[in-house]
Amino acid sequence: MSIDLNRAAAIALEHAKKLGMDQSEASLHLGTGVAVTARQQQLETVEKHNDAQLVVSVYKDHKTGSASSADLTEKGIQDTVKAACSIASFTGADECLGLADAELMADSPIELDLYHPWTDDVSILADIALECEHAALQYDKRISNSEGASVNSYSGSAVYANSHGFISASSASHHGISCSVIGSSGDTMQRDYWYDSNRNPSKLDSASSIGIESARRTIRRLDSRKIASTQCPVLFENGVAKSLVSHMVNAIKGGSIYKKASFLLDRVGDVILPDFVSIAENPHQLGANGSAWHDAEGVATPRHRPIISEGILQSYVLGSYTSRKLSLPTTANAGGVRNLTVTDTGDSFEQLVAKMNTGLLVTELIGSGVNMLTGDYSRGAAGFWVENGEIQYPVEEITVAGNLLQMYQSIVAIGSDLDTRGNTVCGSILLENMTIAGS
User: Fold this and answer.
1) Closest Cα partner for 154 from 123, 121, 117?
2) Which among 66, 287, 325, 402 is placed 20 to 30 Å from 149, CA to CA?
3) Is beta strand 23-39 parallel, antiparallel or unpaired with respect to 143-162?
4) 172 - beta bridge partners?
């Protein structure tokens, strides 16, 4: 049965009003997807799924309740609203609760090129997965096993509406190819992987190139060594460098700030990074992973919003609730930041390695040893030892440690080798000095 998401949203809001709620909002999603995995040149798994979800939030006397359901029949919607209203009757009042202010609602849709459905033909997707894994297995005789190659495709539609009279409808897709293989040398084994993802399947890297890259990254890790504890420059490869940006964003989210649980508390207007570093979000970027013309509360997103300008923190990351808690304007970030871009210094990856001269190249991080209150940072790592500006050998079983604020201020350069997958576009990041715990 076809489901009209706009009509479903209207039913939810009408029923909330009928039950005496001051304000209400409804988010609905309907989508289909397929994922296939091939292992050892055999089709191993096929998963098909159909998603339907309704999330309703209601507000009454500054109390709130929220409920969700996959039942999008009229009765199912009304039951979900009733459950949300019941929950609201038991919660405590908070003057900061409620919808975002009506005058902040986005007034016109923006076409962002987010919808590119792919095939749901399992045989076609299986052939792509098999091609990907085959390329990896044939790359080198030391590739001894495979964890499989996967191809996934997802397309869906969404509606957000609230009792201000705001409603938006959108469609989006997301697709990916990945491969993970195992290499052997003597009695030791290593694994690594590679992947690509995009809203548009025609922009994905070829299946064979993904398989080859997963094999190349695995082979280069063979015969890893341990190193002695030391202090030295550290180069974070682009894929893991993004985590440094993520920690910073988490530290300036409104929830961390109003709870006073951040090492960046009261730092707006302060120098956080070197003056050659700027970070901005670009919510209206065509076809990008995080693009949206309004945030999760209907507030219009800006075309471009600086977060760090020439090293200086410009603002926190706020939705309506946290903005009220802090008596600041919302930054249209309910639901998170969108399409972060980090400026680079124009150095290629090879130039960064040469600039480091002697130190550690980190290609993998393990664990989550980050204290967001103090900024203390300690994570397991693997990568490569560099001497005289050239990679010498792989290393493992090490820990990199420091303090995030000091780490940010010790950034020497950021590469032009941008990793464009995901919500953050960033190159490799070279730090002047960190503590390495080894053998």
Assistant:
1) 117
2) 287
3) antiparallel
4) 156
> In whole angstroms, what is the distance from residue 194 CA to residue 67 CA?
38
Q: Which of 119, 125, 120, 129 is nearest to 210 (CA)?
A: 129
- Please give the helix or strand (H or E) that residue 325 lies within, else none: helix 320-326
pTM of the model: 0.94
Work out whether strand 359-366 and strand 230-236 pair parallel, antiparallel, or are unpaired.
parallel
Kindly state the tokens that stand for 326: 């802090």
CB 398 within 8 A of CB 380: yes
Residue 57, judged by CB atoms within 10 A of its CB (0-12, 13-18, 19+), counts as buried
d(CA 131, CA 120): 18
Identity of the amino acid at 328: L
Instruction: Give the integer Cα–Cα distance in Å for 239 and 128.
Output: 24
User: What are the sequence ranges of the domains in the chain?
Assistant: 5-219, 224-439
Q: Which residues of 74-96 are buried (b: 16+ CB within 10 A; e: fewer)?
A: eebbbebbbbbbebbeeeeeeee
Residues 6+ apart with CB under 8 A from 2: none
Q: What are the average pLDDT values for consecutive 10-residue runs of the chain, which has 439 residues?
A: 85 98 97 97 95 97 97 96 97 96 96 96 97 97 96 97 97 98 94 97 98 98 95 97 97 97 97 97 97 98 97 98 97 97 97 97 94 97 97 96 97 97 96 95
Identify the CA nearest to 420 among candidates 192, 195, 151: 195
CATH of domain 5-219: 3.30.2290.10
